[in-house]
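ugh ok fine here u go
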Amino acid sequence: MGVFTTEEIMRTVEMIHKENLDVRTVTLGINLLDCADQDAHHLQERVHRKIVEKARRLVPVCEDVSHRYGIPIVNKRISLSPVSQLLEAHDEVTAIALAKTIERAAREVNVDFVGGFSALVEKGWTHGAKNLIDAIPMVLSSTERVCSSVNVASTAAGINVDAVKRMAEAIIETACLSADRNGLGAAKLVVFANIPADNPFMAGAYLGAGEPECVVNIGVSGPGVVKRALEVQIKSRKMTFTDIAEEIKKTAFRVTRVGELIGREVAERLGVQFGIVDLSLAPTPRIGDSVGEILQTLGIEAIGAPGSTAAIALLNDAVKKGGLFASSSVGGLSGAFMPVSEDAALSEAARRGDLRLEKLEAMTSVCSVGLDMVAVPGDTDASTLAAIILDEMAIGVINNKTTACRIIPVPGKKAGEKAVFGGLFGETYIMPVHRAGASRAFIEFGGRIPAPLRGLKN
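structure:
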């Protein structure tokens, strides 16, 4: 990585103080496969010991690096190799106990979240994966920091519809068990197609096969920076879409440079490998830190109106191009996130009825993730929820991209009512869904939707 120029340094200082630029997360990936043990007690001891040993310096080092450069590091997190792989010789009881052990270790090292209570079932189940999925509702409703992800589809394997159905049930069970918090447990659960092995963002972070024993991955976010850059340029001169794309690329370049600087320093101090910079534009509930506001700056007055999908496509592509020019270590998801409850402008669009589930789904076909932090009525039945997930998985599989669903059925609430989750999870208005049972017969076929032709690459 080259030396920063004086102009870059001054521009970076302005982005931090005026435009909400921050390092959204430093995520330490830890491989737990060597902790496997047929004795449940020994397994928990080994997992606890390794997490604490590898992560005990993470938060102090991040705070020191943040202070040195004056760049906020908002979250310090851990991603684990899939916990399901440790459960092949165990049962659901051990899965729940192990999750609580991981929660205890996360508290001891003071990280915000720990991901990796995960399973990959796109082509079928193993004993460990089934145990983990069965444990998800109890785990996510009884812990604060443990996050879960399950990959049910890939372009190479197709879609495991039986797994989609089971995940719909698990989401509903999780929401019901955390009904006193508007179903918040479901906010820590993501269902994926084509899950990335190096994603630093929660709730979908996990350490995939082929990753190092221990690695630092960085998530840098700058919706406010992009919005401000576009505002200045649009006001000062007549711009075409080509000009807009170039401005976004230049801004993403600067943001990525900041992320790589921080990531490499943290990794060096911890004595572990540096992995990737994920330059996803991840919004927060703060005004001015919104992907939705970028769309409004581009002239989409009502988010969800015609043109919204094209605007997201332009934004997503330009962010990726700018980041790739700045670093050879871009990875994770990288692009534009649209978590409805975590983005003030998207949440307001949902309240007004401008942004509906069907339009949001169309926009996810060209963004980085999918239906993210979407609240639906608490009485949404499992078949309808499964069908929503299945549609999103199909978008990912056919287009050979990552898609995901983080959907929250809010117990006791109906479409149009407000759900408040708090903190970075934000708040939003509950979106209506299609009438109950309309897709039940379709979902009941079960089995697996075969991989598309483009999945046969060899």
